[in-house]
Amino acid sequence: MKKVLTLIAAIAIALFSFSALGVGADEEENYYSVVLKNNAQVEKFKGDLSLTDAEIVYEVPEIGYYQVKGTAGDLNQIKGFKGVQAASLSLSWDLPESQKLSLAEI
Question: How far is CA 88 from CA 16, 29, 54, 65, in A?
């Protein structure tokens, strides 16, 4: 009986530990800017990107610039792609809802 209670307690502690660490939780998606080393590698980059959950939302292929939407995990994968020169969080130009004005307030 003592072994059964010990086993149940160990399982309960493990379950609570994993939930506290956020295991299995969805990561927040953000926009990331990506610059390629050589814009001739566009198709290779797009092929590599298809292996992640990230998606291209804006591109200027002539200069090798892409904005992608994905998670921090996707960004880490993208940074490891051979043809990527730089990848980082994109700037946000959106105002918080509390600072936006409606037309009636203008």
Answer: 33, 13, 14, 12
- pTM recorded for the entire structure: 0.63
What is the tens place of the pLDDT at every residue in 5-58? 666 766 767 665 554 444 445 689 999 999 999 776 888 999 999 999 999 999
Q: Kindly state the DSSP code that residue 87 receives in the 8-state scheme.
A: E
Q: At residue 67, what are phi and psi to the nearest 5 degrees?
A: -110, 125
Check which CATH number belongs to the domain holding 82 and give it: 3.30.70.80
Whole domain around residue 60: which residue ranges?
30-89
How far from each other are the two terminal CA atoms of the chain, in whole angstroms?
73
In a domain, 34, yes or no: yes
Q: Is residue 10 part of a domain?
A: no
Q: Give the separation between CA 3 and CA 95, rounded to whole angstroms.
A: 57
Mean pLDDT across the stretch 54-81? 94
Question: Does residue 68 sit within a domain?
Answer: yes
Q: Looking at the 3D structure of the chain, how many domains does it have? A: 1
